[in-house]
Specification:
mainly alpha
Length: about 80
């Protein structure tokens, strides 16, 4: 793997992080509100935000890795 590959993975993951994080957070908030039937407290919203960040990091790094692997081709031939 070249430095260009790792840089491409990092840049794409960083660009995707913010919109994907917001999308996952909003979806989890809405799901939890529907499940409980009322508004969430600030602590619950913060918990969902940290959960969304963890899921987002995993998701965008894996997606970015495979996307760049497909786009740039296999480094070993």
């Amino acid at each position: 793997m070249t430095i260009y590959f790792y840089l491409s993975v990092s840049v794409l993951a960083l660009m995707l992080f913010f919109p994907v994080n917001k999308l996952i957070w909003v979806m989890s908030i809405r799901r939890l509100q529907k499940k409980q039937g009322d508004e969430l407290s600030t602590q619950e919203m913060d918990g969902q935000k940290s959960r969304a960040r963890f899921i987002t990091i995993l998701l965008v790094v894996i997606f970015s890795w495979f996307f760049n692997l497909q786009l740039l081709g296999s480094p070993n031939g």
